[in-house]
Automatic annotation (TrEMBL):
<comment type="similarity">
    <text>Belongs to the short-chain dehydrogenases/reductases (SDR) family.</text>
</comment>
<protein>
    <submittedName>
        <fullName>SDR family oxidoreductase</fullName>
    </submittedName>
</protein>
<dbReference type="InterPro" id="IPR002347">
    <property type="entry name" value="SDR_fam"/>
</dbReference>
<dbReference type="InterPro" id="IPR036291">
    <property type="entry name" value="NAD(P)-bd_dom_sf"/>
</dbReference>
<dbReference type="Pfam" id="PF13561">
    <property type="entry name" value="adh_short_C2"/>
</dbReference>
<dbReference type="InterPro" id="IPR020904">
    <property type="entry name" value="Sc_DH/Rdtase_CS"/>
</dbReference>
Length: 272
């Protein structure tokens, strides 16, 4: 190896070792993560706290949220506000308490999603369809508006919406959920245009991730379901958390309005 090549090689190794810890730090920043008492949301909150952020986690259940706060390191690192994601009073309270506790709001992750109906789209109960859209589409819009008004509009920030591969193609049995996630992906692009340049808005679209929310899609037949994935496994919350952290970070500073597919290669081959 030529001396100059060797020097360059050593420098690259050094950057590889030191870079991520330096560039993906969220020290001094504050995030709200909705639907974060467990699963993907808690995984994202954990990732952000590990990288130095303070977080407010939300979900419906007070007790699971209290456990999540303990897991995240206690009130010095995290607070929790219980309530329904589509409830305006809850949204207002969560943002207000975040500002009161930490004094700012730099990052927002709209993770809450529901799917109360399984079956053909045409058979979806209208009330169920309305609730799906209220939580999966209109709530992220409202949370983003509140984050903008509270801090991001003046100081800048980043938003990540948790969509789904169900929003990218037909999803038999969970079709209305897929329609709502398609709308969320579209909402992401509109918000990116409306809120630039100060606020970046992106989305992730996971395939099946091993959480309680998705158990019905793989329970008792995980090996068969995973066989459709080129990487031969289902996702884990940490698979999503790392990607979300990247999109929120300055490393993604020239990325907005995009949806990052996180699917173990599933959509490459057209598997179910």
């Amino acid at each position: 190896m030529w001396p100059r090549t060797k020097m360059l090689s050593k420098r690259l190794v050094s950057l590889t070792v030191k870079g991520p810890a330096m560039t993906l730090s969220f020290k001094g920043q504050v995030a709200v993560v909705t639907g974060a008492s467990r699963g993907i949301g808690l995984g994202i909150a954990r990732e952000l706290v590990q990288r130095g952020a303070k977080v407010c986690v939300t979900a419906r259940g007070a007790e699971p949220l209290a456990e999540a706060v303990r897991e995240l390191g206690g009130p010095d690192h995290a607070i929790a506000v219980a309530g329904r994601a589509d409830d305006a009073a809850h949204q207002e309270e969560a943002v207000a308490r975040t500002m009161e506790a930490f004094g700012r709001l730099d990052l927002l992750v709209n993770n809450t999603g529901i799917n109360p109906f399984y079956g053909p789209v045409l058979d979806t109960d209208p009330d169920a369809a309305a609730k799906i859209f209220a939580v999966n589409v209109l709530a992220p819009l409202a949370w983003t508006r509140r984050a903008r008004d509270a801090w991001m509009g003046e100081h800048g920030g980043a938003v990540v919406n948790v969509a789904s591969v169900a929003g990218l193609r037909a999803s038999q049995g969970i079709g209305m959920y897929g329609v709502s996630k398609a709308a969320l992906i579209r909402l992401t692009t509109e918000l990116a245009v409306d809120l630039g340049p100060g606020i970046r808005v992106n989305a992730v679209a996971p395939a099946v991730v091993k959480t309680r929310f998705a158990e019905a899609l793989y329970e008792g037949r995980e090996e068969k379901v995973a066989a459709a994935y080129p990487l031969r496994r289902l996702g884990l919350p940490e698979d999503i958390a790392g990607a979300v952290a990247f999109l929120l970070s300055p490393e993604a500073g020239w990325i907005t309005g995009q949806t990052l597919v996180l699917d173990g290669g599933l959509t490459l081959g057209g598997g179910l």
